[in-house]
Amino acid sequence: MLRAIARTAIVCGLAAAGATSAGAAEKIVYASYMSEVYTVSKTDLWMMGEIEKRSNGEIKFEKYFSGSLLKAPDLYPGLQSGAADIVLGTPAAYNRADFRLSNVVLPYISSKADAVGKALTELYAGNAAFRKEYESRNAHVLYIVPWAENTFWSSKPLAKADDFKGLKVRSVQAVADSVKKLGGTPVTMAWPEALDALGRGVVDVVSSSPFDSSVLGGIHESAKVGSDGGDMGIFSFAATSMNQQRWNKLSPAHRKIITEVAADAPARFIADLDGELNKAVDKLCAHKGDLTISLFSEAERAKVHKIAAEPVHAEWVKWAAETNKIDTAAVLKDYIALVRKHEATSTWQSGFQRYAARNCGKR
Questions:
Q1: CATH number at residue 217
Q2: 205 and 217: one domain?
Q3: What range does the record give for the signal peptide (predicted)?
Q4: What's the predicted TM-score (pTM) here?
Q5: Helix, strand, coil proportions of the chain in percent (round to 5)?
Q6: pLDDT per residue over 229-250, tens digit each?
Q7: How many beta carbons lie within 10 A of that of residue 261, not counting itself?
Q8: What is residue 363's predicted lDDT score, i.e. its pLDDT?
Q9: Residue 26: exposed, middle, or buried by beta-carbon count in 10 A (0-12, 13-18, 19+)?
Q10: Structural domain range at position 346
């Protein structure tokens, strides 16, 4: 009898343990250097909420925004080492030497976010070398989304190509290369630090700053001039990725849920960005400070493009080829062709185009 009771107790205990294990949520640690207010963060919040809902709570996220777990340059190295399970980052900016093909999103190509986003998704799917930059670093890319077009927020006049000369400009990636071609001095710093740098006089201009992020971050409140800098367009993208080993440990059912939600995220982001650009324009139009919006004339835009566009593109081709045994000129050509394909059906307007159409503020 005692043995029967003992066996029953053991069986019940194992069953209870199994029930506890089965009922335990799959915890996924998420890290970003952006705060929750930014457009790309809102898309990631939607993604995480949707995954939790579709998994009936079997997947739960532990969220760390604003660099509270990993700073911007540490996100993708941290993902590789397993310090976080999912990260939102811009490795093309903060880990540039390791992600050279990711810098193919160069200035002077397009300001149409929907076209650039679709082009990037197709390029990633079709180019093994591009994928290898992430896969070789233990990153399973969930989705890629473009930042909005580049802006310049200045304490000094910035309405023509010659105005760049002698200015200290917070800038990263190919925007920094363009600034140098135009006679300015690039200053490298992460975006959170850049928000304070203009007001403190550390730099004359803050750039490499997407339209929506700039206004949401309040950089316009420290600036005397907001400028399109000659219509540089979109210069980078954000990638939301999962640690590959962590991904492999998920059940097939959980991987299916995450894959399905991730497939919907880029379109969700574009819808979010559309609304956030309109809000940013509203904010600029309502701004009561001493801010002038300077949009370069067609002649000055052409001058900027002549000075910077072709040389910067050619330099990227050479630089990217240093660590990639592929035809990087062909990669750039393919990317531009994909952008042009999707531009043909795009009705997207940049933030500056929306602002100009409103005919508000000081210009």
A1: 3.40.190.170
A2: yes
A3: 1-24
A4: 0.89
A5: 55, 15, 30
A6: 999 999 999 999 999 999 999 9
A7: 22
A8: 66
A9: middle
A10: 150-234+290-358
